[in-house]
Amino acid sequence: MTVTSIRRDWGVSPCLVRIDTDSSFEDIIQPGWLTLQSSTIRSINNGDFEWKSNDSILVSYPQTLSNGTRLNSLFAISTDFSSLLSTSNNSPIGNVLAHPGGGQANAAQLDIGINTVTVVFTTGDSVKLPDDVAGQEVFVYNAASNACNIYPFSGDSINSLLADAPISLAANSSFLFKGINATRWATK
């Protein structure tokens, strides 16, 4: 999986670098991802790409919403220009314990950005997406050995499911949720 285009939008500090890639979100956030892409970037750019320490990088990647829109995430760049770093909207939340026994009311609260569920005692234990859906992104990785249920915030919905209905996330799997309006999440 590689970078398919790269361009700089010159402006006042910081500058915005736009990257299109066929890499998954899971690959993009790995340390050293930019280093792995360096020969492709050099080829697309017809030479070395000039990175700046204050660059913000907007990455478009292939996970799409049901209407075909590609997803985008904003990153900063590491000081050695080898990796993309989470911005405040992508801050990783680790070691989430799914609520034993499941259900929406007491589900473990996820945050905007990257969430890793590390403990699911039994299949169906639950986590819950945040409120204020519109325009937000939530990445959920289930690193546990059992499937968990992901509920929307009370009154919200996921994909075409009824309000308050959960979606199941298998062990060692992930979902990327995108808020498409005030009360609805979409995922692929």
List the helices and strands and how they pair.
Elements: E1 3-9, E2 16-21, H1 25-28, H2 33-36, H3 38-44, E3 56-64, E4 70-77, E5 84-86, E6 92-97, E7 108-109, E8 113-119, E9 126-128, E10 137-142, E11 148-151, E12 157-158, E13 167-169, E14 173-181, E15 184-187
Parallel strand pairs: 2-3, 6-8, 7-9, 8-10, 9-11, 12-15
Antiparallel strand pairs: 1-2, 3-4, 4-5, 10-14, 11-13, 14-15
Q: In words, what does this structure look like?
A:
The chain is mainly beta. The chain folds into two domains: 3-90, no CATH class; 92-187, Sandwich (Jelly Rolls), CATH 2.60.120. 8% of the residues lie in helices and 42% in strands. It has three helices and 15 strands. The chain has helices at 25-28, 33-36, 38-44; strands at 3-9, 16-21, 56-64, 70-77, 84-86, 92-97, 108-109, 113-119, 126-128, 137-142, 148-151, 157-158, 167-169, 173-181, 184-187. It is elongated. The relative contact order is 0.13. The mean pLDDT is 85.
List keywords for this structure.
188 residues; mainly beta; Jelly Rolls; 6-stranded mixed β-sheet; 5-stranded mixed β-sheet; 8% helix; elongated
Short structural summary:
The chain is mainly beta. It contains three helices and 15 strands. The chain is elongated, with a radius of gyration of 18 Å.
